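Severity: low
Component: inverse-folding endpoint
Summary: output formatting inconsistent between runs
Steps to reproduce: submit the following structure tokens with default settings.
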């Protein structure tokens, strides 16, 4: 990495352990990510109950997910820039308290408009949280530990992705949808105490350290990484969003929960692998992950009606996707240097935009060509992502091992 991306003010604290990781603090970050995703996906498993409780249709109730995503997209960059000078733990707590407040409002609200507003601001809190987690995890440790630290901090993501909707459905059935949101508030209270007792605090960036948005966006490597985020997540979410109609081709329409469980379990393995490879083989790991996902697309294109092929492909898909957040956020933070927090807020916007675009594009594909068109869309997008990654060998996805580059981000 260029020397301009490192300054003494952003070096890891001397008290950071030379061996081992601050597991308690990193798991608090993982819990934050888990709450972000479960809060986002919770309504999806509770649409009938929510619709009945608020006197709206299920389609309208589904807009609770849309409002959350919209809050993340609109607020991530402005909130990140506005809090750059704050002490890091205060910024993180602002996001977490946002979950406590707005999940509580959602649990108590009897007006759909107020519920949507609460969901929007909960999404805004998530946008801020996601822009902080990766840089916070990296700052807690020495450069050669950053990949493992980030992998541990991202552990909550695949767990939430695979369990969020079934967990929400189970809680809603057991205690009602309002109580499910109340339980999320209770978990958030526990997390606040956890952060206060285990997560170290660091100063924010000084005025001299802060880079303008345009400067960060034009930093070499940032745009290629964001382009890969867009194409990879678009491909992933076309398949993930419409996994039910896709696996129904193999007669697995009633086994979507098992399919998602297989995906989540494999994604956990993928996270573990990325934690071991990201520091020395980041570029190779991204290329292999994308190639594996492309191979899954080809498998699904030819054998979408074979249950064994679906389970095998879903496991390989989860394995290739598990490390995506670790790999892409590491590449982005390395490339952005002092502008890492702002770049990671851009990542939030691009990631959520890909989710929204995948919902639209997948719906068009489903209506016109059916679920058999999804694998070909995956293959086409993966080819583009591979081409961008290969072309970014100098900046973005550098060929050299990052462990020797003193790749530290600024705060």
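Observed output (run 2 of 3):
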């Amino acid at each position: 990495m260029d020397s301009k991306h490192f300054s003494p003010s952003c070096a890891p604290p001397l008290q950071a352990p030379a061996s081992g990781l601050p597991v308690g603090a990193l798991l608090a970050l993982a819990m934050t990510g888990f709450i972000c995703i479960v809060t986002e996906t919770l309504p999806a498993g509770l649409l009938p109950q929510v619709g009945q409780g608020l006197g709206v249709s299920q389609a309208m109730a589904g807009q609770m997910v849309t409002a959350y995503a919209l809050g993340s997209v609109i607020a991530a960059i402005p909130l990140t820039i506005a809090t750059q000078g704050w002490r890091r733990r205060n910024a993180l707590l602002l996001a977490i308290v946002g979950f406590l407040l707005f999940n509580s409002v959602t649990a108590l609200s009897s007006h759909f408009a107020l519920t949507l507003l609460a969901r929007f601001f909960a999404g805004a809190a998530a946008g801020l949280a996601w822009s902080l987690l990766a840089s916070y995890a990296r700052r807690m440790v020495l450069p050669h530990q950053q990949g493992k630290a980030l992998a541990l901090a991202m552990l909550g993501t695949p767990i939430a992705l695979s369990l969020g909707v079934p967990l929400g459905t189970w809680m809603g059935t057991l205690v009602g949808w309002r109580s499910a949101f109340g339980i999320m508030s209770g978990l958030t209270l526990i997390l606040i105490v956890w952060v206060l007792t285990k997560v170290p605090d660091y100063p924010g960036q000084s005025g001299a350290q802060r880079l303008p948005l345009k400067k960060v966006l034009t930093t070499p490597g940032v745009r290629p990484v964001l382009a890969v985020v867009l194409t990879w997540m678009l491909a992933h979410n076309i398949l993930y969003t419409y996994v039910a109609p896709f696996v129904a081709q193999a007669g697995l329409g009633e086994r979507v929960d098992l399919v998602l469980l297989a995906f989540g379990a494999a994604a956990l393995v993928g996270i573990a692998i990325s934690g071991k490879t990201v520091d020395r083989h980041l570029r190779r790991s991204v290329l292999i992950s994308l190639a594996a996902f492309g191979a899954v697309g080809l498998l699904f294109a030819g054998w979408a009606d074979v249950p064994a092929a679906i389970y095998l492909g879903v496991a390989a898909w989860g394995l290739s996707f598990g490390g995506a957040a670790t790999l892409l956020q590491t590449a982005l933070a390395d490339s952005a240097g002092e502008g890492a927090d702002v770049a990671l807020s851009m990542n939030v916007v691009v990631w959520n935009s890909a989710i929204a675009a995948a919902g639209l594009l997948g719906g068009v594909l489903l209506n016109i060509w059916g679920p058999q068109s999804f694998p070909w869309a995956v293959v086409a997008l993966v080819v583009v992502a591979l081409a961008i990654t290969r072309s970014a060998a100098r900046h973005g996805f550098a060929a050299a091992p990052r462990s020797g580059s003193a790749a530290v981000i600024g705060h």
